[in-house]
Amino acid sequence: MHAMQYEITLPAEYDMGIVRDRVARVGHLLDDWDGLGLKAYLLRERGVDGSPVNQYAPFYLWDTPEGMNSFLWGPGFQGLVNDFGRPVVQHWAGLAYEDGGAAGTAPEVAVRRRVGVPEGVPLTEVAREAVRETRRLAALDGVVGAAAAVDPRHWEVVHFSLWAHDTPRADGETYRVLRLSAPGRERLRRGRQW
């Protein structure tokens, strides 16, 4: 599994209806994308849920690198580049994924928390703790799914969870989910990824 996200930060006065309309118009194009576990079309609005910015920031879980690569080098991502410019694409190697009790329900919000990996901490313990946190999140009421992944270049763990209600019980940045494409969610390997 590979996790991926790009963040397009928009001006404070930007009409976020443009992003909503874009997702409504083209979001279905990934509903059957080969190699995609899930894509959450995420939005933050300045002043809502504590967000300091307007931002479009979709989050992906890929079950194959070929699926991710065919998206990045294909017309779908190029369309986004044409509309907004080329964003930095963050990516992380998967550590764990779990369905929550609300799996199959359309999520309302997502929470992303990024945690630095300090020097001197055994990496095996960092990975095991990420798996435990994924299981803990997935067991909470209203969770659609939870994942953890690591960026070994910057030594950062990302925790990501989708919630079927708008009152998540997780720390981190809160996003509104405009749409979820999940053609390969059942193919995402559950549990520990190493």
Kindly describe this structure.
- Helix content is 23%, strand content 37%.
- An eight-stranded antiparallel β-barrel has the order 1-5-3-10-7-9-8-6.
- The protein is α+β, with helices and mostly antiparallel strands and 194 residues long.
- It has helices at 17-26, 65-72, 75-84, 123-138, and strands at 2-6, 8-10, 36-44, 54-56, 59-62, 89-99, 109-116, 143-151, 156-163, 173-181, 191-192.
- It has four helices and eleven strands, in the order ββαβββααββαββββ.
- It has one domain: Alpha-Beta Plaits (2-Layer Sandwich), CATH 3.30.70.100.
Features:
single chain; 194 residues; alpha+beta; Alpha-Beta Plaits; 8-stranded antiparallel β-barrel; 4 helices; 11 strands; 23% helix
Physical arrangement of strands within the biggest beta sheet? 1-5-3-10-7-9-8-6
What is the C-alpha radius of gyration, as a whole number of Å? 16 Å
- The amount of helix comes to 10-25%
How many helices? The count is 4
User: What best-fitting shape do the alpha-carbon axes yield?
Assistant: globular
Instruction: State the order of secondary-structure elements, H for helix, E for strand.
Output: EEHEEEHHEEHEEEE
CATH-level-2 architecture: 2-Layer Sandwich
Structural class: alpha+beta
Mean pLDDT: 96
When the domains are counted, the total is 1
CATH topology name: Alpha-Beta Plaits
Instruction: Tell me how many strands there are.
Output: 11
Beta-strand content estimate: 35-45%
Largest sheet: 8 strands, antiparallel, barrel
| Low-confidence blocks of residues | none
Distance between the termini: 10 Å
CATH class bucket = Alpha Beta
